[in-house]
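Practice problem 4.
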């Protein structure tokens, strides 16, 4: 597997209520996307970013981080080969990403995702 980028997924009760701290105080002023239950905010000068998540829309568990993969299908095959627990199956979600969620041996859940090109 090759990770292109890793984004922290911070659990919040309400994305709209939480965003002013991250956009204002932390300077993550660019809203890359917002789907109500998840939104990503980025600093335009540095590229630093964070995702605010209320709950995952389709997975039974929330992920601690999102790993943007070069090839999510190959990453999924490798996770299966290594015997890791798949928390959410390899799926092309209605919002366009292809992803799966896997449990790391330490218990953290990782969202492995590939965006449409």
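Answer key:
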């Amino acid at each position: 597997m090759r990770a292109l980028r890793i984004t922290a997924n911070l659990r919040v009760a309400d994305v709209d209520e939480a965003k002013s701290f991250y956009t204002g105080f932390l300077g993550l002023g660019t809203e890359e996307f917002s789907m109500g239950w998840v939104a990503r905010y980025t600093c335009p000068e540095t590229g630093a970013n964070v995702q605010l998540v209320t709950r995952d829309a389709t997975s039974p568990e929330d992920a601690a981080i999102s790993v943007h993969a070069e090839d999510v299908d190959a990453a999924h095959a490798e996770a299966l080969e290594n015997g890791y627990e798949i928390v959410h199956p390899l799926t092309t979600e209605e919002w366009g990403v292809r992803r799966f969620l896997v449990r790391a041996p330490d218990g953290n859940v990782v969202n492995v995702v590939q965006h449409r090109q």
